Amino acid sequence: MVAAFPRAGVSEVGDDWEQRWRAFHRAVVIGPLWVGPPWQPPAAGTTAVVIDPGRAFGTGAHPTTRLCLELLLAEQRGGVLDLGCGSGVIAFAAAALGFAPVVAVDVDPVAVEVATANAKANGVAVAVGEADVLSGELPEAGLAVANIAAGAVSALGAQLRAPRLIASGYRGGERPEPVGFRRLERRLLDGWAADLFVAR
């Protein structure tokens, strides 16, 4: 290996390597929400959303998730559909904020498994299921949230049965245009973007 990569270094891996990743999973506070791992205590006076990402994507700390949650806070309470839910951060935050009913779907069965476990750990009423958001029939909701790639957001328009869409998962230079929707608001954080769309 050193011969192939002369600048590479080699170091011993400690016995605690399986736990070291926890140091990178840190809690964040977004408005009234505290989003963090089960091994950290929630901040006083916040609404806790406890997330153990397991083998799924999503801890709450990524700029795209934070932007989605910021936009979610300003929305009128009602039904929410979380598309590409990963570990379930956005869905559980929505339920904790009083949105109902909340449905979370992902094409990855591992994500569905992790999100289901996290729903139980948070004691929230969230229906979690496996679905391809670009080809399957999606349930109706007052608000859809999609923290996925820009191309997928653009393709969502024809599938959605929701009058409002919060979308992220892409850089600030990307501007997805889901069919049948117009952009109402855009937010940027650390080079990432999130958009609020409303049906035309």
Strand order of the largest sheet: 6-5-4-7-8-10-9
**Class based on secondary structure composition and strand pairing:** alpha/beta
Largest sheet: 7 strands, mixed
Helix content: 10-25%
What is Rg? Answer: 18 Å
Inertia-based shape: globular
First-last Cα distance: 57 Å
What fraction of the residues are assigned to beta strands by DSSP?
25-35%
| Structure annotation, total helices | 5
Which parts are unreliable, with pLDDT below 50 for 5 consecutive residues or more?
none
User: Kindly state the mean pLDDT as a whole number?
Assistant: 89
How many extended strands? 10
Order of helices and strands: HEEEHEHEHEEHEEE
Topology (SSEs and partners):
Blueprint (H helix, E strand, L loop, with lengths): L16 H4 L7 E3 L2 E4 L10 E4 L12 H11 L6 E4 L5 H8 L5 E5 L2 H14 L3 E5 L12 E5 L2 H7 L7 E8 L9 E9 L2 E8 L1
Parallel strand pairs: 2-3, 4-5, 4-7, 5-6, 7-8
Antiparallel strand pairs: 1-2, 8-10, 9-10
Helix pairs in contact: 2-3
Q: What does this entry look like structurally?
A:
The chain has helices spanning 17-20, 63-73, 89-96, 109-122, 150-156; strands spanning 28-30, 33-36, 47-50, 80-83, 102-106, 126-130, 143-147, 164-171, 181-189, 192-199. The model has no long low-confidence stretch (mean pLDDT 89). Helix 2 (63-73) runs parallel beside helix 3. 40% of the residues are buried. It has 5 helices and 10 strands. Strand 1 and strand 2 (33-36) form a beta hairpin. It is an alpha/beta fold and 200 residues long.
